Amino acid sequence: MKGEVKLLDENGLRVDGRKPDQMRELKIEVGVLKNADGSAYLELGNNKVIVAVYGPREVKPRHVELPNRAIIRCKYAMAPFSVEERKSPAPSRREIELSKVIREALEPAIFLEAYPRTSIDVFIEILEADGGTRTASINAASVALADAGIPMRDLVSAIAVGKINGTLVIDLNGIEDQYGDGDMPIAMMPRLGLITLLQADGSFTPKELERALEMATKTMGIIYQKQKKALKEKYLRIAKEVMENVE
Ligand code: ADP
Q1: Could you tell me if the CB of 227 is within 6 A of ligand 1?
Q2: Up-side HSE of residue 235: CA atoms within 13 Å toward CB?
Q3: How much distance in Å is there from the Cα of 200 to the middle of ligand 1?
């Protein structure tokens, strides 16, 4: 089936009307959970993700703590209602793998050595999934970590580049992911210009890889600005509330 379904129309537009280099609408809200140290809610097209961060805090069980740095524990879970057919609430192999992939994409950004013998716990819940949940999760988790006040070298921004009917496109949706020819999720620390995640499904030529990195870098620049704006908005909201209480 892959590669045989028409995913680009005669005008070069995609199944949801987007141009090849156009990402889906992105919305980010920071500080949505009162009980967490940091949190974020993010929508990327139809994907809906909520992230809660706790820590740095004492590690339980103690034997997994590290004497010279904090550990990150990351749990990516899809709600049973997040996909068309009910997903079993038991963690699947895919969810266990994605938890690791997301953790590894975030770790280089965090000053782990600042908090020995502690853990930073990142809980990611996918409320609705439509292709690209790992990149949506990384974008949300990185602002939730910043919201928790965890010192970071940079935020991490992420997006996938895909190939549909032989054309490179940014940010695959569920249908494109299912019937396209390739999917390459990428995460980076935009200010530092360092890639922290690069995966690929399907096949890409070296030239396509170069172009894919270019497209992703450009889009991650837009995501990075939205992440910073969402963080600022939360603190402006708090400042406003404080001022209102003073008056
Ligand atoms: P990503 O969400 O990062 O693209 P995958 O490539 O593994 O990760 O998944 C692609 C898409 O497939 C998901 O975003 C989701 O829309 C769909 N999907 C994943 N797992 C399931 C499932 N158990 N049932 C139905 N759809 C699923």
Answers
A1: no
A2: 9
A3: 15
